[in-house]
Design brief:
Blueprint: H1 2-9, E1 18-20, E2 26-28, E3 30-31, H2 42-51, H3 64-84, E4 91-96, H4 99-110, E5 119-123, H5 132-135, E6 139-143, H6 153-162, E7 167-173, H7 185-194, E8 198-202, E9 225-229, E10 240-245, H8 246-250, E11 262-265, E12 270-272, H9 286-302, H10 304-323, E13 328-331, E14 343-348, H11 353-364, E15 366-367, E16 369-371, H12 376-382, H13 387-395, E17 404-408, H14 415-430, H15 432-439
Parallel strand pairs: 3-15, 5-6, 5-7, 7-8, 8-9
Antiparallel strand pairs: 1-2, 4-10, 9-10, 11-12, 13-14, 14-17, 16-17
Helix pairs in contact: 2-9, 3-9, 10-14, 11-14
The structure holds 4'-deoxy-4'-aminopyridoxal-5'-phosphate.
4'-deoxy-4'-aminopyridoxal-5'-phosphate binds next to helix 4.
């Protein structure tokens, strides 16, 4: 395993970047916040360096560089489709800036259908990106989660039955960004289709860590729509995708209107382009696509199954080690072999999550995330935070807001890094009072994101 991890580390930019500690020393940054964003692959940076001398405007130019840039941009769609087994002819890839934009775009498009009273069935474990875009356009209901945060598929079916054909779309995360649970997307697809609905999988956390297969159109397990972000898969240049049937996106009113989305315009008429171009107004982010495509090639070379297995073992090792630390309460999967991605959410009782995440950084250069992770209703349910309690905390900004701490691994994280984390958490758990005195009060709310004043920065850009 260590050999595997050594090989993976060589693929990543910045694994040895030294960052300051509170004792005046420096240590290699340990990034356990990969669910938020991942560092780039060397291959991605090299692909961009190789491409930039040829970089030019996409689609409208006739110069050699422009034609080349356009070809690379267009060829990317096929490579992305192959990666997730989308249909070569029936599906299209729409380039977006991230998952959030992709889901907003789909919500905007589906809301144009004339189906009065249509329901979108979401779940209680969604990221806000797969919740808020639906709320103002449809009646939204949520399949519930159990006390561990696992989706109750029976409830999803119950609701599909209850709405009796009115559910237009079942929208579900492929894997939770809080507990790491993987949802049974194919089973959910079968259910959705049985009740006449389509399915969208929010692939932001799933696609970078597991093999994903959208399956044939005529399979009941077919995934109708899939969204994901490049910056969570080692390609941080502002690109993402929405994949779905061309038919959905053909005759619609584009959400963004402008150049590139039209065939011909006069003061009296607009003749829109066909899909996907009607959904990609403005100058496209070709660098973002070069990056995403190269990341996909690198992930493919390693093998998504190999990545999933490695990360699963690493997170099992972490879970076991954290279980040995007093006062740590973990949320999420309770059984060892439950299918999940490399995420653990936990609390260390007696120390506020935000302060704990800061202490990990100051003491051991470890980056983790704390708070509600943009999955507010899900974390609120896990922590039994009623609306009344939430209002209370809102009114009392001096009281630290409840939340969790999240560890999320990427393919390059090593067992040694986990040992550093566990050692540091063990020390904090044994000496909470001392650490609280040393580092003072935590920030007031999860939203307040003030820059660290301490320790001072050195050699940082
Ligand atoms: N869905 C999930 C499950 C996520 O974890 C995230 C990012 N944290 C998003 C959607 C939104 O992704 P982005 O910020 O790239 O739009």
């Amino acid at each position: 395993m260590d050999e595997l991890s050594k090989g993976f580390r060589k693929l990543i930019v910045g694994v040895n970047t030294q960052v300051p500690l509170s004792n005046g020393g420096y240590a290699a940054a340990i990034n356990l916040d990969n669910a938020a964003t991942t560092p780039p692959f060397h291959s991605v940076m090299e692909a961009i360096t190789k491409f930039v001398p040829w970089y030019s405007s996409v689609h409208r130019g006739t110069g050699y560089k422009s034609i080349l840039s356009s070809d690379i941009y267009e060829a990317g769609r096929g490579i992305i489709k192959r990666f997730v087994h989308a249909d070569k002819n029936k599906d299209i890839v729409i380039y977006t800036k991230n998952t959030t934009e992709a889901i907003n775009l789909l919500a905007y498009v589906l809301a144009q259908d004339e189906d009065e009273g249509a329901v979108v069935l979401s779940t209680e474990m969604e990221h806000l990106a797969n919740d808020l875009p639906w709320r103002d356009k449809f009646k939204v209901d949520y399949a519930c989660t159990d006390k561990h945060g696992r989706l109750v598929v029976e409830d999803l079916e119950l609701k599909l039955r209850k709405y009796d054909g009115k559910v237009k779309l079942v929208t579900v995360t492929g894997a939770s960004n809080v507990t790491g649970y993987k949802n049974p997307i194919y089973e959910i697809a079968v259910l959705a289709h049985r009740y006449g609905a389509k399915i969208l999988v929010d692939g932001a956390q799933l696609v970078p860590h597991c093999p994903v297969d959208m399956k044939d159109f005529d399979s009941s397990e077919h995934i109708d729509y899939l969204a994901f972000s490049a910056h969570k898969m080692y390609a941080p240049f502002g690109s993402g995708v929405l994949i779905g049937p061309k038919q959905t996106f053909e005759k619609i009113e584009p959400v963004y209107k402008g150049g590139g989305a039209v065939k011909l315009v006069s003061h009296h008429f607009i003749d829109w382009e066909g899909a996907p171009y009607n959904n990609e107004a403005g100058t496209p982010n070709v660098i973002g696509i070069v990056a995403l495509v190269e990341a996909i090639k690198t992930l493919d070379r390693i093998g998504m199954n190999v990545i999933h297995e490695y990360e699963k073992k690493l997170i099992e090792y972490t879970t076991k080690a954290l279980a040995g630390i007093p006062d740590i309460v973990m949320y999420g999967p309770s059984e060892k072999d439950e299918d999940k991605i490399g995420i653990i959410a936990f609390e260390l009782m007696g120390i506020e999550p935000r302060l704990l995440s800061q202490v990990l950084s100051w003491e051991a250069a470890i980056a983790v995330r704390s708070g509600l992770f943009c999955a507010h209703p899900y974390v609120e349910k896990l922590l039994k935070l009623t609306d009344q309690k939430l209002r209370y905390y809102q009114k009392k900004p001096d009281i630290p807001f409840p939340g969790l701490v999240r560890i999320s691994v990427g393919l390059y994280n090593s067992y040694r890094e986990i040992d550093v984390l566990v050692d540091c958490l063990g020390r904090i758990a044994k000496n909470k009072k001392e650490y609280k005195q040393k580092y003072g009060k935590p920030q007031k709310t999860p939203e307040s994101n003030q820059p660290l004043l301490y320790p001072p920065r050195r050699n940082a850009p």
